[in-house]
Hints:
Pfam families: PPR, PPR_2. The chain has 29 helices and two strands. By secondary structure, the protein is mainly α. The N and C termini lie far apart (175 Å).
Amino acid sequence: MYSQGFCSPSSVFKSHFIRSSQSREKNQTNREMWRSKARSILLRCSIQSSSASIQNKVLQSKTLTTLIESPPFHFSRLLSLSTQNPRFYSNDSNVNHGDEINVFDETPPLISPDSLDPFSVSYENDSQIENPNFVSQSNDTDTTSSESEVELAVDEQIEVVDVGKLESVLQFLQSVSSKDGSIEESLEKMNLDVNEEFGLKLIQTPNVNGHYLISFVKWASQKDKSFMTSRIVDALVKAIGDGLRPIQKKEVYSLWDLIKEIGEKREGVLNTEILNGLIASLCMLGRGKAAKEVFDKYEEFGCEPDGNTYYFTVEALCNRKIFDGAWVVCDKMLNSGKLPDDMKIGKMIVSLCKGYRAKDAHMIYLMAKETNKCVPMWSVNFLINGLCRKSESVKLAREVLQGLSGDSRKLATKCFSFAVRALCQYKDIEGAKELLFEMIKEGPAPGHPVFNSVITALSKAGELEEALKLVEVMESRKLRPNIYTYTVIINGYVKGSQMDEAIKILEQAKKTHRKLTSDPYHILIRGYCQLEETDKALNLLNEMKESGILADENDYKDVIRSLCLNTLDWETAEKLLEEMKENGTSLSGNSQGLIKAVKELQKEESKAPQESIAA
């Protein structure tokens, strides 16, 4: 503890000696602590400078390098040990002994200006350093040693890409033609030292012919078996099917031949993502059978299909209208429980519905709901519409609608309308009414099309009182029945020969609407003509004229035929014929011939009595 050569001749100086020794010991401890911190900073600077020098050397030699992303293990371990040693801290220090000083941090810890003074740093040997070859006793040797360590670590993990040769190969592949002979022979003459990084840089360069890339990969793998890696094959698949240029059929099939060869001869190279990319390219080409062939090879190549695998395969098959094969793939997907994302599920449902496989699409929908997938509403619309095409699947559509809730139910007005109309079409009127009142109770609010569908079905079935009750429900919900609603009910009464009730509905329609169309009048006119009540039919025709409603050819035709056949009033019929000509409408030749025949018949009948009197 005491300096050599010091001696105390008397007790007077002894106390002064002790105080001086304690002060020097404290200063020595502080110097050791700051020496450790300074060495850490110097080491960090040396590592940065050495890394920069290595990069400069590589760039000057026209090479591309992939630098290590993190320091070697012995770097961090050594620095951690040196900075955590409590011997580097004085007893009076406020520094937390548990904190590490990491020389790889972007912001170094604060250091006092005195500690950066080169004269305050001791160059003694430190017993705390485990590897004396890594950090030496001086700053100069510190820098040299650390630089050599970094160079060694980097050299062990770098794959060098010769930029000059890479540019030569790219220029060759972009300019070569099929008439230039074998590509492999030209590549051999270049004396290339290929590795994975070289291959990736080449493959990822745009605007290179896919055939030539495949030829290069085959040649490089023959030269070095380790060249064929998953990264190389994945990059090749993406380069051919990236969508930046039109996908070429021959390139994709050549790629498939290469992948088959790899799968048969090499294990562990192919993966699910690679095969998915190939199927996606075949899907874009519309090659359903080829996509199914790739799908069938997954197990043989040691790959497991995922949701994207099933999606691309099903889409490729549906594009070629191979719906039976598409359902086989869908069935495997349902058994595996691996579904694609929500949008792709929706597209699969739409594709199957377009192929009249709505029941199969419904099974995919159920699986999606079980796995908490959010199926897009536009695909649900397709599903409901597809299920409503057949009577046996309408109930499934109703089940789907009952499972909707929240915003999905609010946006499903068209879906409910499809289902109600289908139930009415297949004469399930009770089911349609139940669904209608379910909409009134839980939403979405039914509109005119839904009410009119049920009212039409009730009117055709002769349940006119029920139809009128629904009209009252419409009015209670502030929905004014439109002309079509009244026309449907009028038609029901006319079919039952209840003309008085039909006229009441017409009067009610007049109160609701300022101007009607010709449809209710046409039904009433035909009804009166069939009942041989020609005068009432003629009155309705005149009422149409007074109301400004243009009667069509059928209205005139029905009244004229009734006048000729029932009342033999050919004179009125001729007047109606003249009105038609004025309105720009024409009567068929048969009706005009009927008027002439009745006219001649009456003239003959009128001549017969006169001749008998004269005789």
